[in-house]
User: Fold this.
Amino acid sequence: MIELYKFGPVGSLCDPSPFCVKVETYLRMTGLAYKTHNGAKYLRESPKDKLPYIKDDGKVVADSSFIFSYLKETYGDDLDGPLTKEQRAVAHSFTKMIDENLYWSLVHARWILDHNWVIIRGIFFGTLPFPLRLVIPNMVRKNVLKGMKGHGIGRHSKEEIEEIAAKDLQALSDILGDKTYFFGDRPSTLDAAAFGILSQMILSDTFTAPVFDEARKHKNLVDFSHRIQKKYFADLP
Assistant:
């Protein structure tokens, strides 16, 4: 059986990481049997020092993109198989937009905006013993900011990051339109990737930020998020 290593449920979300949500949504959409192992402690065992990763029949695969590739090659491509070449190209491009733009706007909102940082610090570091909880959180936050600058988005102002995210959200809304899923009445990996990020922005009420308000302005994205949550994660609160 496939074993999925992730952080674990937070409120109504199956995970606070959009990439973990992305992979778990894919597994549920395909109906593949799996079990989860929850906890940040598994970061130490991850071959890429991040979550999610999976173990399957002795093979370890990290990074959501490579996990998708492995699962498709091993168990078939039920989600994207029926798509045209053009649709697959669109799915790939939009997924990269989500992973490279919207994800970092989420990171900025959670880790850099001070009012959300207080919450993040409690969630991830609140159980650390004294004096580690005075030192480790700020070190991690500095590394997050360093990563954002290395990526490039961290060199923009708050307003510019929000503008980038707004354009990406508009693009997602435009391509979804009034369809059930992005390519019609069947889910694809793009739906899993989109739900991964939109669930964090729309369904979670843990954090507040202008980018989350922007996401909620798009009724079709809000409806999509609730629809996926209800269909595939009805077991969560």
